[in-house]
Structures are given as C-alpha cells and as structure tokens.
Amino acid sequence: MASDLGTNIADMLATALPTELGSTPSGAVEGQLSNTARTGAALKSKSPVQSAPDVEVAVVTPTRLRPDRIAYLLELYASLHAQDVSWEWVLALDGVSEKVVPEALRTDARVKVVALPRPVGAGAARNFAVNEVTAEWLTTSDDDDVLPAQSLSTRLRYAQKHDLGWCAGWSADLHPDRSITTWRCSTPPGFHAPGDVWRHWASPESTIPIGPTTLLARTKVVRASGGYAALPQGEDYAYLVGVTGAARGALMPTVVYHYRKHSEQMTVQPEYPAMELQARRFAWNQGKYLESLRKVSTRVGSANPWTLPRDHGQGLDISA
From 208's CA, which of 8, 30, 124, 241 has a CA 20 to 30 Å away? Predict the structure, then answer.
C-alpha cells in the first residue's frame, strides 16, 4: 500500500496544491440576526454535487489545513480511494478559508466541505460535520492519519451482519520510515454490551480502552450519544464512552487505522500534558455515571436508563 500511496500523493501534490494559505477574517459584527444568517450559510456543504443518497459510510475529518499537513491530508484522501464501500468525506474547516482546500478535493462530489467562520477546536468541528452526514454509518479520521485498505468495509459488514450499533478495531502507529507497530487496546476482541468498554478502562490515568478513531458507528447512535465533548483536547475520549455506552458493539482483532507518528502531532507538543488528565477524568466520569444509570434501570425494571420512575431520581447511586 505504501508504494501506491506514494505515487498517488506525488501526482496530487503536483496538480492539487492549495491556491491560498491563510485564514478567513471574522469580519465586522452586523447584528445578531445577520450573523446567524451568515453562519448558517457558511456551514452548508460546498461540494459541486451532493453525495449519493445510498452512500454507505461517512468519514469525518476536522482540519485547519496547515501547510505542513496538506501532504498528509492528500494521503488520507488517497487511502479513501482504496476503500471498497461507497463513502462521503466531510471536511470541517476549523476557521480557515475554503480556498486552501486542494483542488482535487474541492472538485470531488464525495467531499463535503463544512466551512466554520472561526476556529472552534477539533471536537466542535467534528460535531458540525456530523450535521452534514447523510450516510447511515460514520467514522472519523484526523487529517494526518491513514485508513488501510478495506478498513471501512471490514467494520461495516461485520456490524451489519450482527446488527450492531458500532464496530471498532485495532490501530497501528505509522512511523516516518513507513513501518507499522500495532497497538492492542485493553478491551478484548469480541462482542460488547453497552458500557462494557468503559469497564476495561481502570482509571482516568490508565490507557484508554479502545482507540476512538477506530470506531465505526451508526450515525443515529453518534447523534443520540451527544457526539464530541466540549473540551479543548481529549474530546474523543468522551465520544468513545458515549457511543460504546449507548449501543452494543464489537471489537475486531484487526488493524483498521494507521496513526501517523511525527514531530508536529498535537500529542507530542510540550503543552499537551497540562490538560490531559482533566480530559480523561471528564470522560471516565461520564462512563461512571452512565454505569450508575444502568444499575438503576436494572433495579426498577426499566429497559431504558433515561426513562426512570419519578421517585427514583433522588436515589441515584454514583459510588460504583
């Protein structure tokens, strides 16, 4: 796959480099109603032709289109071409101009560009992108990572066969020399009931139980679970807990995501550790409280933890 991708990227870089590198100014404030109208228009998809209604999987990617990541973005695009299911790619531009989008992407009807008028962070950008998803299933990829061949179909067909709400796999580190190192998460392969994945996360300080970007989920499950948390980082931990806590799913013992290791990735920056534990605590506590709700629903005989009898609200056990 590496050699094919290298050829594709070389061709794309020769013909599809962005024509402008810069961000969009916010403009003057012209009143609340006017701003609302302009923001709504900015959030609409800008693809020349909308994706086909029978598209199977949406891939959501937030990006600031940094010049040093354009080649990575095009490599991700090339890896989408290696997939054997129909897809739409929803690019959420986190406060940068649509003019920076490489031409090959702007002219591909399968690529939806969601132009946000100001930077909002990766989590919020993903949530705005989810608004534009038309496919029944979705997954996410960062703009510097790669999907191995059959990544989408492997998870999708297994989830469809077993009527699951989500399906995940292993991720592998993609090193600068193109070598691959597989990361096997703490959650064991197999089927998992709602909330079971969180039970494999021993504490906020422990390694997360599944790589969030390996999740492929029903779009309605993502929307029902609230999407990504309002956090400046680690928002995908809460996404992982919410999706796997809302529906039955499975972890497949196969690599479905290549996580690129490089010096500019966010997780290796000096400021990254400062809020990492807080983000982990937020997501871990989310799982803890969801677990408590499930216990209450079991005690009162309700199949739905959100519709508890009125007199049980005060007795919620959050000590577990």
Answer: 124
Q: How far apart are CA 137 and CA 221, in angstroms?
A: 9
Helix H, strand E, coil C: the string for 163-231 is CCCEEEEEEEEECCCCCEEEECCCCCCEEECCCCCHHHCCCCCCCCCCCHHHCEEEHHHHHHCCCCCCC
156 CB neighbour count, 10 Å cutoff: 23
Model confidence pLDDT, tens digit, residues 4-56: 444 444 444 443 333 333 333 333 333 333 433 443 444 444 443 344 568 99
Q: Decide the pairing of beta strands 57-63 and 87-94.
A: parallel
What is the C-alpha separation between 224 and 227, in angstroms, rounded?
Answer: 8
Q: Cα 319 vs. chain centroid, distance in angstroms?
A: 31
Say if residue 197's pLDDT is above 70: yes
pLDDT 10s digits, 169-185: 999 999 999 999 999 99
Helix count and strand count (H, E) for the chain: 9, 9
**pLDDT tens figures, 59-107:** 999 999 999 999 999 999 999 999 999 999 999 999 999 999 999 999 9
pLDDT on residue 294 = 84
Q: 114 has which bridge partners?
A: 92
Phi first, then psi: give them for residue 266, nearest 5 degrees. -60, -35
CA 214, 100, 83 angle in degrees (round to 5)? 35
Give me the helix-helix angle, 122-130 and 235-246, nearest 10°: 40
CA dist 5 and 178 (Å) reads 11
**38, HSE (Cβ side, Cα atoms, 13 Å):** 12
> What's the pLDDT at 234?
86
What kind and span of H or E run contains 75?
helix 70-81
For the full predicted model, state whether its pTM sits above 0.85. Answer: no
- Radius of gyration for the alpha carbons in the chain, expressed in angstroms and rounded: 20
